[in-house]
Batch of 4 targets.
Target 1
Amino acid sequence: MQRYILKRLLETLITIWIISVAVFMLTRLTGNPMDLLLSPMASAQDQAVATKAWGLDQPIYVQYWKYAYGMLHGNFGNSIYWGTPTLDIFLERFGATLQLATFAIFLSATIGISVGVLSATKPGGKIDSFGRVLALAGQSMPTFWVGIMLVLLFSVSLRLLPTSGTGGLSHLILPGITLGWYSMAAFTRLTRSAMLDVLDSEYIKMCRIKGLPERLVIWKHAAKNASLPILTLFGVQFVHFLSGSLVTETIFAWPGVGRLAVWAVYNRDYPVVQTIVFIVASGYLFVNLLVDILYAYIDPRIHYE
Amino acid sequence: MIRIARAFKGIPRIPIVILALVVAAAIFGPWIVPFNPEESDLVNQFIPPFGMEGGSGAHLLGTDHLGRDFLSRLIVGARISLMVGAMAVFFSGFIGTVVAITAGYLGGIVDAILMRMTDAMLSMPYLLIGVALAGILGPGLLNLVIVLGVLGWASYARVIRSEVLKLKTLDFVVVARITGCGLGRILWRHIFPNIVNTLIVLATLHFGTAIILAASLSFLGMGVSPPTPEWGLMVAEGREFIDSAWWLVTLPGLCILLTCLAANLLGDWLRQRLDPKFRERA
Amino acid sequence: MTETVLRVEDVKTHFVTGSGVVKAVDGVSFSVGKGETLGIVGESGCGKSMTALSILRMVPAPAGRIVGGKVFLCGEDLLQKSEKEMQTIRGSRISMILQDPMTSLDPLFTIGDQVAEPIRTHSKTHALNVLARATEMLRLVKIPSPSARMSSYPHQMSGGMRQRIVAAIALACEPELLIADEPTTSLDVTTQAQLIALLKDIQQKLGVAMIVITHDFGVISRICHRVAVMYAGRIVETADVQTVFGAPSHPYTIALLKSLPRFGAGLERLHTIGGQPPDLRDLPKGCSFAPRCAHVMDICTTEFPSQRDIGAGHTVCCHLAGPGRSAQ
């Protein structure tokens, strides 16, 4: 088990390294990174300082080394617009995104998994048909449209909920539903599919042959086996949430990392963009690592690979 | 050929009809639109769709904030979305397949490196990367396609690679190797035909995703620029007027929804028909 | 005369599909006594497994339904019982071993847990005694170091051992009837022999009535007392094992035995039975085997041959067999 965890940790670190390279290359695409990383009004002296700090007059691997070294020491560069460290700017807004994402994932997982289980235990029934249509529709709608429609319905027409900003539960609902919509559809479909697969298996048949009460069959055996792919989905949804948050936070003026990212790209504040991409991508990898470790605890077959 | 024709038996009607309409709009759009979608007519701003108070038969789906006929814009928008979607799918599919076959078939260190790259790609929040990349490349249709292509290849690569791994061990491939078939021949005549089914399913499903992604990028201002009638961009433009002209935000989104829904339904059906491994319970 | 444990009378199980009604089991009757093993043999798709599932009332709904007949377990008609009553019967009075040991066990739970489950469900045994009994069952099926194995997982064991564990689970509550559905098909020859020997041994010890479903005549010869031959959802011949091998009556049985490769017979072409098994949605009028029968007569295609007794527990459904006459 320890060996498995170490192996996965190593893989994660290597992938994070690759991401750092990719992010690094992102700003070297145009040939002159100073265009992207420095304010257009930078003085000659600023430019000289930057050239020295980033090694722009040196070969690319030296540049990369300076960049990586800086990151290992917590120096992710400074924002062009504000001049303050990008890491601080990121951390200020991270809390808001985390709050929204947690609410959204809680909402989508609870509803999605419940509908999925109910769908699977009575395939072809009313809940199943309804759930399947909803799930399919959910995965065919762009997040931004869901958000705007919700605003149209609940804020503009019905005047029930606020259109933007943070503040209590009422401010959390619309953005939460918007952000979680796609995931809810994904959870419903996957849970249904995983449960059906499991319920169709020989070992579940065996459980019924043993005369086990149906609740043991479903909640002890089927649920545990189906939880494996569902657990993996949690990890995958993280990526959707971070992407979805760009749009959701923009629509609802939510002061989080997503809105920061859009703003930063629009205003060409690339150090901020770089930092966001790197941290978010690495974060996703760690979430995946956790999911894999959890997986290995549930499934005894894993560490024998 | 017969195999393909037989595979089309029992195709679900609704998605096909919707897609046919969209394709027709895309192909014939510029010739059948009642008005020029890019021509402003500031006298006729904000006319609601036909059937609503203030609506007129001249503009069946009303006009937008610049007085442009909305129906015409939606129809031409189909062309944009379809083009972007198809090109993105082709681009991603091509790169993904090449990576998958190379990694899967050659194995070893090549596989390890390519797979780490694929994993890295899949772990990056795609919209964030898309926005960043689009910001760097600048607006425009071609840049949008490039961004989408770069974002999409990894999902193809992962799935197709596992197919290739399974195929590699099958007898007919081993026999081909033993009898001295060259690498190119094995890949083209033995491996590729057997992954085509999976590729088709992935492409159909990716098509819907690509359209949504293109619309999202345009919505955020990173895709095509005005006055191009792209559905996502139209929603963004209409957002300001949401309390007075609801059709400006609702209708383009509905078009995206229907197109993507049709692609997903078709993709699901194809998955059941072409790839028994993915069979979903009825 | 041994006490009858199971008596199946004219059971019919049909499946409603988009392309017609599939008559998977179409009027099957047989009985099994205490300490006796009945073999049900036939080609794939002839309805053997569905017969077993019908006895257990586990026919896949909603497409499948038992539409007729009676199933008497020690005199009680199982088809009249409620689902709750059936749950108490399954695993405790009737048990089943499935074909593929690699998929019969839940991969996420220990062996001990899975063997203990039926014991816990069906008896009021105290918790500590449950584990002791489970370990006893593992010992009974000759699993080495049973106490250590209680905390192992299925993937750590070979196919042969897993099948024995499935047998342990099936026998944990000392059922009156054990159904084994192709228990040896997924095993290699040596392991097959071990499993068959084990089942025979257990039957002698516990006196359990057994039904062994198989297409392997070798298994039949080693463990069965009586044999029922099934074709297209119906039983075409029933006899004790010596008679089936020595003096089979139904042309299908004869053809099946002829198609077995014989040791020491020299180089000769294997016999096959020409034609295909019939479509269960569209069974021919008359005898279902008629299209493929070498001795077909006119009456065979118009009238279904009812079961006739041709001596000492030997019944057959064939027009060729009058009382005392055989097809040869």
Target 2
Amino acid sequence: MSVTTCAAPDQAAPIPASVDLEKETVISGTVLATNGDPVAGAYVRLLDRTGEFTAEVVTSPAGRFRFFAAPGQWTVRALSRFGNGGGEVSVARGVNEFQVSVS
Amino acid sequence: MSRDTALVSADWAEKNLEAPGVVFVEVDEDTSAYDGGHIPGAIKIDWKTDLQDQVRRDFVNKKQFEALLSERGISNDDTVILYGGNNNWFAAYAYWYFKLYGHGDVKLLDGGRKKWELDARPYSKDVPQRAATQYTAQEQDLSIRAFRDDVVAAIGVKNLVDVRSPDEFAGRLLAPAHLPQEQAQRAGHVPTAISVPWSKAANEDGTFKTDDDLRDIYSAAGLDTSKETIAYCRIGERSSHTWFVLHELLGEPSVKNYDGSWTEYGSLVGVPVALGDEPGTLEA
């Protein structure tokens, strides 16, 4: 599995002020190429525990993505011109930060 | 209709970027995507400001559609190739408009922006200037458009295909969280509708699955091809994607898109609504 949890959730992530992190479950992160550079324009999709498509976003110029989900098991898949990556993640309320490597 | 007449591949597109009589049109929910780079030579249509009436809740009418295409430099005999983000949802929505107003030759780019990006094909930021035309549209082809009364009359009689996510179907969610202004008053689905999320029809690179796979998906979900079909979603764009699959790729003869979709149906007074993961019954 190529999704790794950062030791500490990135509290600096620019979440809109209107989002209540006591209630929301944020799955966010960065897509990285094998050389460690962030990948802009990657397609990141969130699949539910049954593998059903739930949402898809395109990464920012800094390679960032973010979903608003619910606590539980999810799969994060990243597709890019540099390759694909991803894996299963287990998330709780608050910000859940991941790095997704593509190759 | 079939795959050969309704769809082009990214390879075909890249070879025909400058072909005379071929117009590439990007249609997006996020219209800034075009400005950041698009298929070279493509023009832009904004699904909301260009394709919807800005006062009434309805499409642009025939006259408005003619004015739009004339101003963008599209003529009646052009081959129009539509593509966009969101797995071509909004491009499929525009495709349905072009068919509704009788455009002769319109196709979708298989995989849209995503496939183009994943293949690492070129983008351009140049905005082409096309000379204005005198576009003439046909009257709306209502054989592909369903209204609310058609949907109510179809309960338990025709195929109703709900293409939203399973949570929206069951009534656990009203809408994807980023568009709260388009919520209906009630959650759930039209009784007797089967749930076939649009995403079942697409590969993860955004291209459509094969015809055989597509037929299997809908028959396994309980679609009775001897009956007429109405597809709906929340605002009519994801169901355009499914309408495209059933009517244009698989050639099912009678398929309508209900563009009012759940934001209209779920706000109607007095109509039946079903909750939960099962289709439910008229009595629900």
Target 3
Amino acid sequence: MRMLITGNHAAAYGARLARPQVIAAYPITPQSPIYEKLSEWDGEGTLGGRMMRVESEHSAMAACIAASLTGVRTFTATASQGLALMHEMLHFASGVRAPIVMVNVNRSLAAPWSFWSEQTDSLSQRDTGWLQFYVADNQETLDTVIQAYRISETIFLPSMVVLEAFYTSHFMEPVEIPDQAQVDEFLPPFEPAFRLDPGNPAAFSQTVTQGQYAQFRMKRHAAMEDALHVAEHVDTQYQGQFGRGYGLMDCYRLEDAEVVVVTAGTIGSTARVAIDTMREEGRKAGMVRIRLFRPFPKTQLIEALKHVKKIAVIDRNLSVGQEGIFCGELKSALYSWTERIPVFGFVLGLGGTNVSPLHIRGALDFIERYDHAPAKPIFDIEGCNE
Amino acid sequence: MNRENVYTDLLYPGHMACAGCGEVIGLKLVLQAAGERVVAVVVPSCLGIILGPFPYSSFRIPVFHAAFETAASSAAGISNALLSKGDNETIVLALAGDGGTTDIGFQALSGAADRNEDIIYCCFDNEGYMNTGIQVSSSTPQHAWTMTTPLGKPQKKKNMVEIMGAHRIPYAASACACFPDDLRIKVMEAKKIKGMRYIHILSPCPTGWRYQEKLTPTIGRLAVETNYYPLYEIRNGEDYRITHQSRNLPVDSYLEAQGRFSHLTRRDSDAIQREVDRSWDDLNRRLK
């Protein structure tokens, strides 16, 4: 069935199709329409699972963790301050290997107060042991939520599906809603071997020794490394069944590209327009939109980018005192490649400011003019401020 | 033989509580009365120590050692998960200390009470952060010494039973580890009811209260017999019942037995007696 819906509603449809048994949520702009849509279905009796209208995001995540350990599929959604409040529980969720799926709608963090798109909220949760998918449109939102359950429940780590405030969350697009029977076939019921069960008493997340702790940490890392192959495999299977696949990254006109934009989220859609125009002018421009941020697809990125001459990373986020976060991650990944490719870091679109095709073009023009990338992030591109 | 009073112990011996611990007595009684069809949450507190290190467990029931402030939200998550699987028989216990309940876990507890989650929440109140080395909590009584109130706590103890009663939950009660039958009966009463049930269990602590280990039963009984800590229950926020008629002993007998009150002047203890009398009258006025 094809429907004209927002990114938030696409997330809600994706979640309902996955048949979560416990959903715990708390309102926050711009995520609230997900919570409202799920509540509407709960009221109609078509949700399927139990809805917990909790008093904070911290409790939402705590409830999802405990429910997941009881052996049921769980879902929650949040944004910005709510995600930051959950921070402690994000480490906990991956530590107890609870395969929760959460949608985060990227929103700028206070202070000062702001409600628009910026990725710093989710990127600040980089080290919590969650998979992170950055999506570019509403269809990808729905599909990624379903894929994320399958991936998470294979490797027993939680997943965050990240869309952008308003650009994705409130924008309406035609979305293909898969049949429930097909999704059921793709995503079998969640049946973990270990769970809180009065018939089989066991203690979960006990105190451990230093050595045991180190072992648990390394196991979590190994599972995260497995996630790369699992995510690729699940995406291929999804494509086979539903006709839509996304890969770990979205590579656009990359084959013979010399100057390349690397970005994530909706800026990737904008970049396509700019690159098409530049290609018409005979310039060899291309784009990589990173979809899976954790685990970071290092070898796949080297493979995709090793032939290019220069890279412009466009980050809608900032690690204050350092640079854009995707830029830092990409530089780190490319360090193990024998050739040195100059990586120019642009920090654009902070606080939800617009990144137009003009900015993409401006960034690629800029890197063509210089042989060496500056150590500092570039915040302004001459002639691009509308 | 009357089988009603034969309980199965669901706490193994060899746990790691301090000698003379009042809390572990209360825990044993709660688990006896709750029975075997139980899933429990414990949060960081002395309970986490009693539970023991990986891969051992002193509990004979499934237990999740959750984050500090999440006793209520984690228990609610388990309860909803069980209900989603059609299991409305298993009892879900939230077991927390007074810091995890009256301070850091207060918001999650109030939220769970507001939603009338189907859990039994037991607060083991040893009147301070004893697990971390005797720091003040909002459940520490006025004038008591702790490592962070070396001159005595200026503020009064937070009254959690009244606060939970004010949430209009089906069942809220005070209990004490040193009144075993009263405590077990309250857990069994709670089991008969669905929705949010809260039991506040005074748990004398020789380590933090500064008294000899063998005095735990005496101290707990004195707390009740002086009306310093009355045993009662509140149903639906309005139906009050005192479950143990006290002997109205002078509060001095309770205070003088503990090192944490050794600095009190006559004026201090007289003030405490007046406060105890006032609270006792207040409670009695609420009885129907």
Target 4
Amino acid sequence: MENSLYKIFLLPEISLTLLTCSCLILGLFSKKDSYLKTINASIFSLIITILLIFVNVDIKFAHYDELFSNNSLIQFFKIIIVVGSLTSIIISKNYFLELKIARFEVPILLMFSTIGMLIMISSNNLMLMYLAIELQSLSLYVLAAINRNSLVSAEAGVKYFILGALSSGILLYGCSLIYGFTGTTSFEQIYLSLNQLDNLNLGIIFGLVFILVGLAFKVSAVPFHMWTPDVYEGSPTSITAFFAIVPKIAAVVLIFRFCLEPFGNFYKEWSQIIMFLSISSMFVGAIAAIAQNSLKRLLAYSSIGHVGYVLIALAAGNQESIKAVAIYMFAYMVMNVAIFAIILSLKSSKGFVENIDELSGLSKSNPIIGLSIAAIMLSMAGIPPFIGFFSKFYIFIAALNKGLVVLSILGVLASVISAYYYLRIIKVIYFEDLNPNQNYNFTISLQSKLVLTLMLIIMTFFVFYPSIIVNIASNLMLN
Amino acid sequence: MTNWPLLTVIIFLPLVGSFIILLIKESSINSINIKWAALWTSIGTFILSCLLWIQFDYNNSSYQFVEKIRWFDDFNFNYHIGVDGISLFMILLSTFLTPLCILASWKNIKNNIKEYMISFLFLETVMIGMFASIDILLFYIFFEAVLIPMYLIIGIWGGERRIYASFKFFLYTLLGSVLMLVAIIIIYRNTGVMNIQDLQGNYFDKSTQKFLWLAFFASFAVKIPMWPFHTWLPDAHVEAPTAGSVILAGVLLKMGGYGFIRFSLGMLPEATAFFIPFIMILSIIAIIYTSLVALAQEDIKKLIAYSSVAHMGIVTIGIFLVNQQGLEGAMIQMISHGVVSAALFLCVGVIYDRMHTRQISFYGGLVNKMPAYATVFMIFMLASVGLPGTSGFIGELLVILGAFKVSTFIAIGASLGIILSAVYMLYLYKRIIFGVIANEKVKDILDLDLREKIILIPLLLTVLLIGIFPNIFLDPMRQSIEIIITNYEIANGK
């Protein structure tokens, strides 16, 4: 296809940037209801972006000297990321209004962060990778503290900012080391220049470790997870939903690409680090969540545990693991969107539900909601026939294909431990009596009801026709 | 052979029933409709499964009523179901007990009737599906999905320590079964097949076999349960509602035995031969130890729960004798225990509904007030002990016969179990039924009503039917058992 200038508007990142700027202008210049106008415009823009990603016109000159790369895996995850931010904006629309933090900046920042993530996962260069990470992180720092009047929200924002800046510094130092020893920042050039080596020298190993530490911070793998529970708890729940769903997916894809593309030939070097991160994340995620009473903290630890499973797939480092991570992150998005859609709409007499024991006896007053939460929890715990089981199943297939038996056994054992806290939520909902003073109020907008229903259907009925997702995932390739 | 997918209909009919119940609005008037809908669904399933038995070809050793639909496009996993002589009676047992369970909960479940019936029907689907699946992944999915309804049944409608019991049940059995998942993936990686039948002729190298065997052992030994993995069972039984105990003892324990026959014996014969002494020692310890523990129990349900462990010890001995008598005995013992222990739990439920206690010391002299109950209870008690003419006798006799062929020591161990079971069951019976009524409250107790008779009489007839005409049950399973034994002997060079 002939390249012409107007086709550049078909590039999802560029058009999303332009649309976001238009939304910003719309928000600035509208006298009243600026929040509602921008949020609807942002939903519209994200839908357009999804369509553009589907179109996927390959415009050669828009690769900017191979700064960007594009392949089926990246395209798949771009869709997942945009769908994730779209759904999290939809489910949190009413929440912002209720909490009176309905500023028009919120959707704008969410969209800037989304742009950052789109660039991040398609970056083919250490510098671009760093800049994209910063773009998405800076928006997220502001979002964490968006509830300015709340002390915990401000604390979450500052904590996230300081720790995030530290990790960015480490990441950047790692990039500079790699540049120093290979003389290039492009992923492909790094791959080629490392290819001539039999062993990595110390400087490159240091660079690799530093970059992995920075990325581990972004995916919140143990021991770089400390910020996660506090930030999840302190931020407004709608922002937590976004944190839990979207940046995590982007960071996971980036860590996959970083390990498998430039360092693809040095499996031995990074796989040890990844295995350690994986085992510690699974167990810390499973054990630390047991004692939590705050629903958001629990979900934070649960997401740490999920990252541990994804890293098992990375530790396998084969074609199966690409498929496994695609299915796992898809399932992760589905389950998290569903649970947050419920949390963001469920009010007890004390306001929005934040603690587990506030859910007691929910099944008696709202049986359908109780059933849905129970199903999501079972799915997260990896109990068949829900989608969570199949995602874990694919992870273990990838790991056992590589012969990682011990890692898989540790993985399944951690899943048993984590089943305990998921079951605890079901226990509170089903086995405990309804508190007579408690009265639940579940108000949900039509759009988020649609999203919730769709996610629950995918989660439950995946077992009957898994091939749709599985076939897409099987065809994904890295370069 | 029929053209319509009979087996699929049997598996999913209860699920359809539970969807219908989900749509019925819960109210006091509708609760009776919910109960009837559940009852008729389960009776319909039972009738269809009888059709399965009628059409079953006794001379065909392979799977029948096979249905195979491609399930995953990327892997060789199929929706592959079928019935052979071993699974036929397990399916029948599940479909037979579910309507009785629903009937047994007619009055004593007062809250959340809708969820209760949905749980039971979902449980029925999952149980039948598990016994009918040929694809291992399908088997695993059903095997684990059993935990969900059972967890809810124990946790919502259970006794005082129900939360502890339900968590223990769920986590304990989950811990066992996740290792099976690893084993299943390794099997798939090594062979590329997920079909139980094809895998039976496929031998792994010996060290892999041992690893896989241990992984399967972990899940089945917890499920069946074997000593020392049995500690979840007394808690789960005591806290579960009557119908929950019935299904737990009647069907869920058999999943372990079924798994041993299918996977350990069928797929991993060399490792089985290696581990037989280990199993035998655990089984004999289980029989003697749990029988003695049962003797000391004060709670009727707990006593029967421990007796289940002892009876399952006889089953594991029978399975791992790997000869015709032993395996047939183990199968009959499983069916018989499914019926008898279910009946015993229902009998306990009868007096529990009236007096709301299960303490043995509370009762005594019931024969004066409840003659019909005393008779029925006696027959089930004797069947549990293994009196000739009842189902328990056939199973135990065959297992001991088989055991004498292998080793006198094992035979003595198994026979000890029978003697001890007579001790604790007769002692229990004496304390509850005989004597004079010492407790004032027991004086007003009423005998069985019509509903309870309707529940217990089919069980009674089944016990006697197995006891008097065991061949009705033995003939269909003979071919399938022979295949497993031949397979085992070829693998071990006998």
